[in-house]
Protein: Serine hydroxymethyltransferase
Organism: Nocardioides baekrokdamisoli
Amino acid sequence: MADVSALTSSAYSQALEVIASVEPRIAEATRQELADQRGSLKLIASENYASPAVLMTMGTWFSDKYAEGTVGHRFYAGCQNVDTVETIASEHAKELFGAEYAYVQPHSGIDANLTAYWAILAHRVEGPWLQNAGVKNMNDLSEADWEKLRNELGNQRLLGMSLDAGGHLTHGFRPNISGKMFHQNQYGTDPVTGLLDYDAVAKKVKEFKPLILVAGYSAYPRRVNFAKMREIADSVGATLMVDMAHFAGLVAGKVFTGEENPVPYAHVVTSTSHKSLRGPRGGFILATEEYAPSVDRGCPMVLGGPLSHVMAAKAVAFAEAKTESFQTYAQNVADNAQSLAGGFLSRGAKLVTGGTDNHIVLLDVTSFGLTGRQAESALLDAGVVTNRNSVPSDPNGAWYTSGIRFGTPALTTRGFGHDEFDKVAELVVDVLKNTTPNATKDGAASKATYTLADGVAARTKGASAEMLDKNPLYPGLELS
Ligand SMILES: *Cc1c(COP(=O)(O)O)cnc(C)c1O
């Protein structure tokens, strides 16, 4: 991580004083959050550390400006500077990803997906429907026809990767809005290898005939061949939507190229900007010319006023991601995942799919006699921050789970390399080997409570502190 200048330190110190003059507890919590992030091994696969430039861009008066609409076509007056910011952000995104069109307004990954779904419905269903009915605008439909159109919009088919195979809840999971607004179905992974089986996906697509095929994941530790996914989508005339929320940084950093790069193959690509891409919390959408006009209607279709300060920070993050040093970072993220996976495998641990070729490592903790919940808590006791995750066909269900998901983006930003990630694997295995489930009243093993052997938390924290001190977060940043 690049050294933070004295000027930045003084800017943050003064900002905290300003905050403290109004609500000191918030200033205090903000200081404490920095201390906590500095002092823990952050292995949550969806988190990262944004640069001071990205963070500072979010703290300005752009936050105060309403700018519903699109560049040059706003529902509010006085948006000339927001227009500048949004234009620069989308130009950067188009160049960075080689996309025909970029929409940078979505507030989050979920907003990006919801906007993309409705844009696809508008393009594929509503447009042709209105044309058939001989009207330009849905307000010109009779009440009876409007009722029919609404019915049709609400009965389209969506096929995405199942949650326990590594998909995201917005990919058609029933409790999520995506599972309710669509007639949904899911594809999984091969029960033996844990890998995506393209022939099985193709078969399911032929049977189910979705309007939208969703590719992308939150917990699948492997690369996806998007050329194959496009071919499968084309076989039934489906729109291919790729949700690259997790791996956008690996696309931007040119680790995923050719058929592993979703942009040339998908009709619509959605993403977050804050995970491996290392930008501000937010979302964005890339699309082909064909889908651009409907995505551009994100507001008023789904969204309200864009977060102009965050769009500005996205522009800064995209500019950072265009640099060679970001490409080196992205390659290190992938290499470090190999080191972490290798560290687990050499110590006899079991990984879903037997390894990784992206930034995620999914450890199956059943061989330690633990549930994901027990493993997650025991690791946290030892200062290792992860999250529990289902494994395919999880015997412990979605609450207790059987897996722990690890990601390398955050600690790679701090400067961790091969030796540190191998050490992380050693520490994790040590903690899990020394954790035992408590017995329930009837003598069975508890799925929730556990005992971590004496001294293990302390020795893990000691070893972590050494690595964390050597690879400081925001080096040079000292708050007065
Ligand atoms: C994280 C994630 C999202 C949601 O992003 P939020 O910004 O939390 O709304 C969507 N899709 C995938 C695949 C993700 O991993």
User: Anything to note?
Assistant: The chain has a mean pLDDT of 96.
